[in-house]
Structures are given as structure tokens and as C-alpha cells.
Prior knowledge:
By secondary structure, the chain is α/β, with parallel strands linked by helices.
Amino acid sequence: MSKLRPDAREALRETLRDGMTIAVGGFGLCGIPADLIEVVAESGVTGLTVVSNNMGVDGKGLGLLLENQQVAKVVASYVGENKLFAQQYLDGDVEVEFAPQGTLAERLRAGGSGIAAFYTRTGVGTPVAEGKPTEVFDGQTYLLERGIVADLALVHAHTADREGNLRYRYTARNFNPLVAMCGRVTVAEAEHVLDGFLDPDDVMTPGIFVNRLVAARPRVKDIEQRTVRARQEA
């Protein structure tokens, strides 16, 4: 049976609920599952724990969920460019669990691989280590980090086939493959959905990780910070 659904609303129908943990692919606005995020925003579910590298920017991407006050906790690498995220964190309206970027990636991969926890030297002796068990290996102190298993994972791919095999494009790959692994239910949106199958050598996320698939709507890709150099005369 094809995993393809007619639209993002149908793909998430009867899946969203208050208080759930949602892992979301992307880095800033690059490679984010924008259609799926918008459906979460429209649904009105609240008390969410969002696991993502960051929370987009004001008014775009995961910033929409912050504007709607749907988020109770964020597990992320940094507050980034989102002023509302920073303000809600400072005001105590949103709980934030900071995770070093590599640690966050490994926590997602571990959760998807059935690994409950792992030791890492990253974060030892910093506020990241507060309240976490440590162990000494070969004279070095290591910090115990838990794998992440999300109730729902949302990812964006460039190309997919109807069985949910995914291929990402350049830097838009970022956290998407790891997020796809860690969800109890994983929903993917793809810019191109093939009638046939992806070449096995092109598959970056096997369809076994993907429960539902939707064709992404065409849209202008937003850029967080557009920087240009002054033109030099020849």
C-alpha cells in the first residue's frame, strides 16, 4: 500500500494531540517541513515538546508554534535568530533543554537505533552536565546522555518514492535523516514524488522509517540572513 497521502492535513489527521513530543528536521529555515509545521500550527494542539536544532525565525517555520503559544518545552542546540523564542525562554514561558549540536544529533540517532543512552565527553564541566550521571573511562570523565524517541517526527526531503524512501538535497539534509529515525510515527514531505522507485544507491532514509508521505507544496525558500558583498570594480 502506498504511503502517499493527498495533503499534509490528511497525513497528520488523528495523529496530533496535546502534550506530545515532536522532532522536526531542518536547520533554521533550511530543509524544514514547512507544510507539516503549518498543519501543527493550525491544529491548535498545546503543551508540545519540540526537538529541533533551533526554532526557525520569527513568524516562519517553528516560530509559528511559538507565536501560537503551543510549545511548553524545546530541546535544541541554540536559541538562534528567533527573538520570540529568546523572550519566552527568558520570561520562563518555555522550558529549554540545551544540547550541544553533535550530542543532539547522536541522541536522535541513538533513539532511532534502539540505544537508550550513551556516554560522551562533550558538555563535561559545563551547565549541560548538571543533573546528569558521569563515569570515568581511561582517566577521562564522560557524561551520560539519553537517546531521543519522539511521538512524531516531521521531515523534509527533496525526492521520495511512494514507499517512503527519501533523498535529501545538499545542506537541506542536515538533521532530517536523524529525525526520521527517532519517531514512533514519521511523516515526510517531499518536493518530488516519483511514480517508480528511487535507485537504492540514492536512498538516504529507507522507507522502513517513514509511515506517511505527502508532496510538498511549491514555495519560495526563505533565507534567514541574506548577505551580499559590495561589487568590486574590474
